[in-house]
């Protein structure tokens, strides 16, 4: 969970810097990619936990 929150903070900071500083639009793009990767990672971890829970009776 700490990794998830850390990556969210990194994505927000990169997005803010990329949006406000002229010529650093690529930081905004990197921030968006980090955010998407983080959400995918969180979804994969969550789905693995739910499958394991259902298999163990």
Describe this entry's structure for a reader.
The chain is an all-alpha fold and 57 residues long. 88% of the residues lie in helices and 0% in strands. The longest helix has 31 residues, at 25-55. The chain is built from two helices and no strands. The chain has one domain (2-51). The model has no long low-confidence stretch (mean pLDDT 82). The two termini are 26 Å apart. Keywords: Membrane, Transmembrane, Transmembrane helix. The chain crosses the membrane at residues 25-47.
Short key terms for the protein model shown above:
elongated; membrane; transmembrane helix; 57 residues; 88% helix; 2 helices; 0% strand; mainly alpha; transmembrane
Question: Quick summary of this structure?
Answer:
This protein has 57 residues and is mainly alpha-helical. Helix content is 88%, strand content 0%.
């Amino acid at each position: 969970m700490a990794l998830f929150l850390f990556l969210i903070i990194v994505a927000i900071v990169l997005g803010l810097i990329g949006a406000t500083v002229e010529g650093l639009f690529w930081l905004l793009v990197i921030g968006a990619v980090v955010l998407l990767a983080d959400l995918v990672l969180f979804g994969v971890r969550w789905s693995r936990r739910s499958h394991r829970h259902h298999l163990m009776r």
